[in-house]
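Dock flavin-adenine dinucleotide; give full complex structure.
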Amino acid sequence: MNIVILIKQVPEIALVKVDETANEVVLPQGPGTVNPFDEYAVEEGLRLKEKHGGKCVVISVGTDRTESALRACLALGVDDAYLLSDDKFHGSDPQAIGKILTAGLKKLGDFDIILAGKQAIDSDSAQVPGAVAARLGIPQAMFVKKIEAVEDNKAVVFRTTEEGYDVVEANLPAVFSVVKEINEPRLPSLRGKMTAKKKTITRWNASDLGLDGNDVGAQSGTKVIKVAPPPPRPKGEIIEGETPEEIADKLFQKLRENQVI
Ligand SMILES: Cc1cc2nc3c(=O)[nH]c(=O)nc-3n(C[C@H](O)[C@H](O)[C@H](O)COP(=O)(O)OP(=O)(O)OC[C@H]3O[C@@H](n4cnc5c(N)ncnc54)[C@H](O)[C@@H]3O)c2cc1C
């Protein structure tokens, strides 16, 4: 069973700023981290490999800085890491990232299950896993909270819905994005960290992937019209009173006046 996990390196989210003049989101220059939802995908990939054998690898579209996120996955025990990187990819929207990843997956060739996080915590579009499945023409199930069974080239998964969950059977290969209920990610061992430092990360650029730059990077279909920080929250009100009962009473009246209750 060969498993490929899509991982995104995301910035330390608390340090992200908005430059309204340049109409840009200014990302911090630190090493960033693996998108937290992708850590659950990595854990699930490792568990599937431990149960069924085969290979478990990670792949990412990013820059030189993405290497540290890929090494963090190698330290957890994934076999290999692939970085898809090229100046032509700069400015790619989620559909373009899907196109680049699909080219990388086709070059990789041999996979049974592709795992991803349910969404990236910075751009949050939750489009990439579906875009990859659509481009590869293979089944997809999003927001998976359990991989129940994998056998005979089929997988049965529990897909989270607003009401509960659906039980879905998919032919393999398939793409599954996962939610954090699926498992408890492991921590890297010291030995894993040492091994990860020495591993070679395979890098493929646009020409390695047979991409001419059309529909990716600056040629993406989406254009950002305006970037602005969210408006500041209005100041709250502190309700004063001599006793908790008096404060509760005043709060009750206020909620009534505002037709909240
Ligand atoms: C017009 C436009 C220009 C942009 N320009 C840039 C830019 O110059 N630089 C930049 O960093 N971002 C840029 N972005 C943001 C970038 O497109 C998204 O971060 C990216 O497409 C992934 O979308 P998402 O973060 O919403 O991922 P989601 O779809 O929310 O992610 C879901 C899952 O997909 C997988 N995944 C997502 N992204 C990747 C990835 N890169 N590699 C591997 N797996 C992945 C992960 O498993 C992740 O958990 C731009 C966006 C737009 C619309």
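Observed: DSSP finds six helices and 13 strands in the chain.
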